[in-house]
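ok so i was messing around last nite and threw this chain in just to see what happens. nothing serious, just curious
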Amino acid sequence: MPAPDPEFAQRVRQSFDRQAAMRTLGATLESIEPGHVVIGMAHRDELTQQHGFIHAGMLAAALDSACGYAAFSLMPSDAAVLTVEFKVNLLAPARGPRFRFDARVVKPGRTISVVEGRAMQTEADGSDEKLIATMTATVMTVVGRDGLNH
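result:
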């Protein structure tokens, strides 16, 4: 998918860097391509639920950001991005120790885009990858609205 903004990667990085929520999760932006974003995160005790697994809300937040930025990478330079809706399927406990949140645009649109995300857990060296959650997200392109940064 071609990106309409040749500076899309820089725009995605700048927006991601403004997200206090992703800093709180310790999430990092690992890869940006037109219509495809990968976010990484390590298991941390502060993010767990009562059984020691990463809390579902933390997984959903990271997947939501991956999906949003995958769509954002295909938006014009003056656009902002907002999630309209998402559905998460939790497939296995999030034990870690590492997580990768991979999102790809399925249907780009002028106003609404559909994105699919996958959360994978791996060993620290990246081996033994296992699918632990999926997300389908509907993301909106917003242009000309006060208070929204691109």
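not much to say yet. The beta strands are 28-33, 36-42, 79-90, 98-107, 112-122, 130-143.
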